[in-house]
């Protein structure tokens, strides 16, 4: 960021010098031109006075004609100088002040916009340098599971009624084959938010894998309750289809997978389901 500010400062100074220097020179030149015109008018005035002194006769001078002519010349000189003083500064100000001011505003705006973009970039770089990388970098599966469990338990200690934390903790125990702990977590979810299709399916899955991938009566009853609430509950149907396939009930597995395809649920992987259906057809 310091490099940006130094560069921006040098650029602004350079541009301001380029913008304002001609204006300053213009003002100086205008003043010099004005002095030159004044000197020229005075010289002409003096020449005209000298010429009048030669042209007027003694009689005309005695009658005051020479004095009148001198007065006219003096008045003309004053008018010329007054007109020049009024017009020259106005024109000079318009040329020498308005344009540099506008250019200065433009330069400042460009610098501010540049800082906005560079500042955002620097913030993103700083963010990436801080501890915002993968929190599980360098960990194995067991360490990751332990870290996740510790974070979820901390959430639960801070908010014992956090049903999401309880459900995720149950999933973590299920994935690490800690079935009893998973059942405790899912039961807690049921106590807090009721027996919805999601938690019923999670509990049924726990019983299923606890029994060594066998559909026990308890697991089947929970699946039936979940499907009664949500006929197209993805996890429940996938568990049923997998169990039917493992037990060589291929047509039943095909029917369940086809039901999932027909549901047009965006959560499902249609390509994988089609592959599974084709495999089951080949196994029949």
Automatic annotation (TrEMBL):
- TPR repeat intervals: 163-196
What InterPro entries does this protein map onto?
C-type_cytochrome_biogenesis, Cyt_c_biogenesis_CcmI, TPR-like_helical_dom_sf, TPR_CcmH_CycH, TPR_rpt
Domain of life the protein comes from: Bacteria
Identify the Gene3D superfamilies for this entry: Tetratricopeptide repeat domain
Q: Where in the cell is it found?
A: Cell envelope
Report the residue ranges that make up the Cytochrome c-type biogenesis protein H TPR domain in this protein. 148-263
Q: Which regions span the lipid bilayer?
A: 98-118
User: What's this protein's name?
Assistant: C-type cytochrome biogenesis protein CcmI
Starting at the broadest rank, the lineage of the source organism is: Bacteria, Pseudomonadati, Pseudomonadota, Gammaproteobacteria, Enterobacterales
